[in-house]
Amino acid sequence: MKQKITIKTIAKELGVSTSTVSKALKDSHEISSETKEKIQAYANHYNYKPNNLALQLRNQKTKVIGVILPKIVHHFFSTVIMGIEDGANERGYNIMVCFSNESYKKEVETLKVLSNGSVDGLIVSIASETLENKDFNHFKGLVTEEIPLVLFDRVVDEILCDKVVVDDVGAGYKATKHLLDNGNKKIALITTPNHVNVGALRRQGYEKALIEEYIKTNENFIVEVDEKKDIKKQIEKVFDEDIDAVFAVNEIYAANAMRIAKEKGFKVPEDMSIIGFTDGLISEYSSPSITTIAQHGFTMGKQAVALLIDRIENESEVFKPKKIVISSDLKLRESTKPSS
Amino acid sequence: MKQKITIKTIAKELGVSTSTVSKALKDSHEISSETKEKIQAYANHYNYKPNNLALQLRNQKTKVIGVILPKIVHHFFSTVIMGIEDGANERGYNIMVCFSNESYKKEVETLKVLSNGSVDGLIVSIASETLENKDFNHFKGLVTEEIPLVLFDRVVDEILCDKVVVDDVGAGYKATKHLLDNGNKKIALITTPNHVNVGALRRQGYEKALIEEYIKTNENFIVEVDEKKDIKKQIEKVFDEDIDAVFAVNEIYAANAMRIAKEKGFKVPEDMSIIGFTDGLISEYSSPSITTIAQHGFTMGKQAVALLIDRIENESEVFKPKKIVISSDLKLRESTKPSS
DNA sequence: TGTCAACACGAAACCGATTTCGTAACTTTT
DNA sequence: AAAAGTTACGAAATCGGTTTCGTGTTGACA
To answer: What's this model's pTM, rounded to 2 decimal places?
Structure first.
């Protein structure tokens, strides 16, 4: 990189001190307008830009927010990022994005790197491997160091910090209820393994809706997808059961279910209703398009970042973790029967 | 944030100088093993972590790469980010991600912020508004400041820097040729306005393939989609023409075409073949699934970041812009007739 | 016993800004 | 004319590290 122009250069060239330059550039009243003009003109001409690192070191803040996501090629997380970036920008922050790729080890490392003063705070959605391990010491470390932290979507109670979640139980209930209301009784659930708590919560909602209708949950109707294996094959198995509807906890599972249903000769939604989660492009462009729970990822991102920046800028405040619950909506499309 | 422990604290507590602490922590031979052990034990116990900002200021490098994308809720860009992050991590860099949201103004601002020393280099895909304006002074500024820059996918010749692109002409040709080879003659093209150069290049490939078969391009078969208006309506119009195939320059257009074709009663691929671009989830889960040009976003990201880091770490090298062309593959699926 | 090297450590400069405090040179007040 | 107040600027500390260049103390060797 080319030798950049600094305050020192300007000072030397113009025969003044660095303090004078600094003040002149901030239009301080301490400096005569004559000197100010001279300095400003010079700075302008040579396109002087204050060095951010120096400022960050001095101010002890970076105006950067670290974001760690399990993955990005996923409609929900993409929209969350958009929300975070948007909210951050509004308040003069930038975001530094990293991915854990669902790996515990990478999450620990990334957290370590980012917490070395590179960021003022962190927004994280926990990796599935970490949720499985149940080892959250790396997060607890952050808390004791008092580095502002906001968890979203995939959160755990053990970590004392602000959280933003969707009302997963309610959403699971809403989806299942919708199926029940339209005459479906034998509803399969395609979910994640139980350690991914959003999956577990959505399942709770599913079970709650069934119980209300005095339907016993049938374990054979429930598939816990292991993403390391072939997803489609695992989902296919539940179609051997006598089912008339599928509730999938994400888009991909729903799209797979749709495909399998069609292959098996079911008519959607006449013989088989399908509801997904995450209102992404797959659901929208599938045919028939898929009824789904819209998670409002953008809103979640904005809320998370607002929470975080408030925390960063009001350190003095007594620490009382907040939890924001974002409601989710059922987006009716063609894969379920119209409400009767 | 809690008062963090610094080298100064350690020095004071242990009654040594900061230089001694610094050296001890780097296991310098200048320090007696006795003192080293004492200092290291202390640092370890109090979980000392060197302040990144201080190091960055001193070393004049941040080990951070800025990435500016037009959007993220898009399979191609998501995969590119993954590639960039992956490649960056391998070489000890982090990425700072921003979005221009296709806006010229935001691109300029973001570029200004990031080039203040916050990053060692930049990877950018140009906003469509900027391409339309043809105002690239903000990029030229970077070049004269000698801040390493790599453009990918949406690039322009005016900017002298490294570039990574897909072989858009070739890909457009490949897609069109495939349609022609399978008996389609009246091929519609759903593309972007001409200022988005990837669209223009893919169109060139399309035209080239037609010319080879002595088919005159029919302007009525070509739709330049304005994303500010209703996408579907614009695409629908071309179906009024007598066409037997559609080549769309991205997933969304292809999915829309698929939907319209089905609505109009065409059988895909018997009556109507469809080829898309970007091998994303929509193409995969559409039914019938969509034949598409796979762009290898991950590879592009990795190549771009490798190019950038090489540039960052070998500033001495004479500057000769490199251009890497990533080949793209035709991924055959159900929306086109099997090769005869 | 004087000299020199090795050892172990500290002082101070440096990265690029900001900011407090001091002060010389005027101007105003009494 | 002395005291007080302005004006316009500079010196130096600071942020948290690294690194160069001393320097005092040993011990070995001639």
So the answer is: 0.92
